[in-house]
Fold:
Amino acid sequence: MPQPAPVLVVTRIDDPTADLVLGELRERDVPVARFDPGADFPGQAKLAASADEGGLRGSIVTRTRSLDLARIRSVYWRQPTPYTAPGHLDTMTGRWVADQSRFGLGGVLAALPGARYLNHPWRNRDAEYKPAQLATAAACGLAIPRTLMTNDLTDTRTFASANAVVYKPFWSTPYRSLDGVAQTVWTDTVEPGALDERSRPPPIFFKYAWTRISTPSGWCSGRSTSR
Structure:
């Protein structure tokens, strides 16, 4: 009797949300494989894929699993590690290797024949930019909080003096201290007096703040639910 087709969970090793999903799938005897392409490839995983008139076929082999690309029935795409290169490579070569991995393996993972995606990585990418999220919400007639996106310290202080605000990064970038300890930038309230030159990083780390709302809402099936 053939084995059921597996579910592929694409995420980093330290993802507690994915851990819950993986546990539930195993409780239901659903075959599941966890894969972090940015961390596992090319050093710890092998890709062998081909494409012809019949479509895409091949396999991904990790230290513990061999995955037939044509048999993966669904993909839970969470938060994989960004593609990196082996540390012994120089900067330019490493960047080239990382790009080849992202467009090669990443392209294969985005085109698995017959797989259902939650969500497709390209749709995730389209929705990842917070300014675009806010603009889209406003265009749909949804109420959005007042928001400031700037690297101008004076504008930030003025906004924080006139509003109760919180700070939130644009993106959850992996961040470590000089001694290698993982750091987390929490979404937190900001007092005007706490803002100094450290609050004015280069544009790639723009500040993002909005008026604090007393009853945050979540959206599910088109209905707003307070929590």
Summary: The first strand starts at residue 7 and ends at 10. The helical segments are 16-27, 37-40, 91-109, 121-126, 130-139, 153-162.
